[in-house]
Amino acid sequence: MNHRNALLAAVLLAASSLATAQYIWIDDKGVKQLSDRPPPPNIPEKRILKAPGKPMFNPYAPADTAPASAEAAPPSATLAERNADFAKRKLETAEAAQRAADQARNKAAQVANCDAARKNQQALDQGIRLTTFDKNGERGYMDDAQREDLRKNTQKVLADCK
Prior knowledge:
It comes from Duganella alba. This protein is mainly α. Helix content is 52%, strand content 10%.
């Protein structure tokens, strides 16, 4: 008998919190709140499940009549439509990530190209003899015309680096 009385007392104690609650609502985090005070003003009416003078919300009750206009309440999307929207958003996110990666890669390549052009310009300005290699791999030295062509090309690259 003692165990039965203790179990009965526990059940009555748990149920008493519901009995004293005059207000029941779902908060912003989706947690059911029970209180003897009204919910905060930012809680919409549709999330207030119980209030004095308002019948308890019944999730199994038939839906109210259809809205007066389709603009007032658009029909809910089917599971297939929601899946298609999700797939579309996922694809758009992947494409945006790919574009961002491509831009970062292009930016890194441009920085490396600009650094190489600055080093070439520095070598040209110092008057160092620059070597070239022909198609057979033999080393040669740049003449003045080749140096001037390299200087012009380097100037063009550096103009885009600023």
